Amino acid sequence: MTTFIKGATLLAIGGPAGAEPFTGDLLIEGDRIAAIGPSLPVPDGSTIIEGAGKLVMPGLVNAHLHSNEALFKGRYDNMPLEVWMLYAYPIRAAKALPPRLVYLRSMLVAMESLRTGVTCITDDLYESPRSELELMGAAIDAYDDVGIRATVSAHVVNRNFLDTIPFTREYVPAHLQTQIDAVAPVATADYLDFVREAHARFHGRSGRIRTMLAPSAPQRCTPELMLAANDLAKEWNAPFHTHIVETKVQAVTGPEFYGKSLIAYMDDLGLLNPWTTIAHSIWVSDADIERMGHAGVSVCHNAISNQKLGAGSAPVRKLLQAGVNVGLGSDGICSNDTPRIFDVMKAAALMHKVNNPDWSRWLDASEVLHAATLGGARTALLHEETGSLEVGKKADLLVLDAETASFTPLNDVRNHLVYCENGSSIEKVFVNGEMVVENGRLTRVDEKALLAELRTLMPEFLEYTKGVEAANGELEPAFTKVVQRCYGMDVGMTRWASDA
Predict the structure, then answer these.
(1) Cα-atom radius of gyration of the chain, to the nearest Å?
(2) Residue 490 has what pLDDT?
(3) 457 in Cβ contact with 104 (< 8 Å)
(4) Which pLDDT belongs to residue 16?
(5) pLDDT number for residue 489
(6) pLDDT digits over 62-80, tens only?
(7) What is the rounded distance in angstroms from the CA atom of residue 163 to the CA atom of residue 149?
(8) Whole-angstrom Cα distance, residue 28 to residue 47?
(9) What is the biggest distance separating any 2 CA atoms in the chain, rounded to whole angstroms?
(10) Closest of 51, 92, 14, 110 to residue 476, by C-alpha
């Protein structure tokens, strides 16, 4: 089967054309781009898409998300990460969800992603209280059914929760410490058995599904587990996906636990590599950035989530100048509340103008678009397969109506995409050469029926959630004190000094 897009404005991002838009044709054969350029011959039997007034670009890449948060969309606000995690990632009273609910939860994320132009996601999947193959399979079934490209992990923590955050032993009541200490972390051998089985069962499905290794963070995992995961990542050519220095608390954690920054700790263990992707990387020093650039790591910049949780702003210009690859992510569907990468692009472009008075160092639209496409693909080690319009790459692309209000008057296509567009101009979405969205409608699934089914299950889930929130709310006063201490505030104060 061939599809021929004729006479469209093409924004290739990579390859010879790069980030300069041009008018031309694009030929899809099977799951790949077979030809791209001006005045191409039309193969017999091709389905022709008239490109006049259309913009064709690579599908967007969500380089970091947690689909497990989707049922908390719109539920929590005005909490720093360490307090928010008590509710979004509960350690007390949590139980495994039914597989069908996990399927619908994942489908909710995937459907909105595709309709708003995200063709490739990296889902750092965490299940409370622990990962299960059946639940990971339910999420992957959803991604397979809807037609999205996905790299999926089994996010792991194998240290006692209270020993992953400094000062908790000083503030958490003794009886709660005893309860938390009774929860045995997963053993490294059991984790390795799990990820090997997941890789054998899911990796490569439909040509769109891959697995990855996802030790949560250096302070949350033992060196033994991280080193073993790194070995498998290298062997499988899979990402080693982790979180480092998202918050001020985590900036304090490295010196408190290891006498050095968490980046230096990872580097000394040999865990900064070209297959390493770091979510966040906000509280990094110039020395940290130099280490990261030398190692050739990737960073996922989660511009909206970092603002909602008050975590800070990653030094993206410094990271890029050091040679760090940068992608964009929504982060969790509760710390962002949507998987829309168009939103993240605009936020990322704007936030660095505020925190840097030297406008010569602000990000431009081409840099933001690169991070949202080819840079994001690189974080998942998929840059040779997707992320740009190039001959031989997978046909993961968007067709947008360039005659909508978002593109009128049409000045610079790249600026319109970053600052004016929100996904509403998308007419068609292709993944793996297949049209999975047409005129705003998902072609593989009945979105309305799936959303209706999910709504019928929510009352029971929310009733369960209230009990979980009550149990974990007992920890909030202690964790509030931890955050205040790490920011140098008077422990126990009720307002930030700047708000007084």
Answers:
(1) 22
(2) 57
(3) yes
(4) 84
(5) 67
(6) 999 999 999 999 999 999 9
(7) 36
(8) 10
(9) 75
(10) 92
